[in-house]
Amino acid sequence: MGLLKTxxxxxxGSERYTTRFAEKEELDEAFGFREQAFQSLGSGWKxxxxxxxxxxNALDKESSHLLAYxxxxxxxxxxxxxxxxxxxxxxxxxxxxxxxxxxxxSVHPFVSVWHWMAVQAPxxxxxxxxxxxxxxxxxSLEEGKAALVVASCRPSDIAEFRSLGFRPLGxxxxxxxxxxxxxxxxxLHGYQSLKLLDSPLYAIAKSKGLPPGKIGSDWYQEFIFxxxxxxxxxxxxxxxxxxxxxxxxxxxxxxxxxxxxLLNNALHLRCRFGETxxxxxxxxxxxxxxxxxxxxxxxxxxxxxxxxxGDVFGELAFILxxxxxxxxxxxxxxxxxxxxxxxxxxxxxxxxxxxxxxxxLATLVAKRVVSANAALNDARKAKTSAGMPGTxxx
Length: 394
Hints:
By secondary structure, the chain is an alpha+beta fold.
């Protein structure tokens, strides 16, 4: 590991994963892992390269870079960047743009952003995230500069982050980097709360003598007082509660148990007018269903489709696993959608149910191809007819 400095080992009772902050001479290893983890984002990236983890950028010099290693292979399996919040205003993805706006100017110097987390340990993602977060917390307490942390997580992982002491800071946001992300925050010195949660972070803080904080809980209480409870914009869907089979195009033919398993693990998003549901250029293998309201599908600035109840979207990226070419956004204030990840489908126990789901999806795609071909033929006929003598053409 050269000059990498060991900050902490995981506190899970094993030494499977260790975490280290990269020293100046060893940054290439950290950047190399990050670039490899996010390499699919780099191809065709439309925005500022400074905002993409697939590229090295100027903000890297203002940040700390944390790596997690598998102690058996001695190879990196996780990465996290820690950046002062004031460096990121106007230079980060929507998840953090929306979250950082909640903090008054007086708080900005005390906010650290933990972002661009990458984990490449398919069977141990939670353990690696745990190792990264505990190491980042330890470093933050030791340095004494930050009081609050802003981060993001997949909605499906929120229980894991809550157990550490993180709390939601806003609504789920569609991101080109992470698909759907929930902004979250952590009060580094909220020891009473960490103790009540039995968070492993409390043991770390106690071992450091419970360093006094500058701000934290008071700010959050004022935030709740001004804004009310946090509306995250999502819940877990409860199968069987619906009045209509809006999901039939994907669930037809599935056994009752498989259908409920699929739907109960879906992300149920409540969208406001104009909110982005799926970001173009995003690399995520999820597919959506419109439960209520309407969606617009845009290719660049062009509106190419309007979707309503029962319609499916995002199917090509779900099948192929590639980059999304179109943006999907809510076209009404009462829009509700379900989002299914590919992992959810793969957890169906019966191979027959998995095969049925893919047959349903193949049928859906085939119907869309037929419909698109018919529309194209009609357009060709109209163009030909417009050019014939006596038909009004010139």
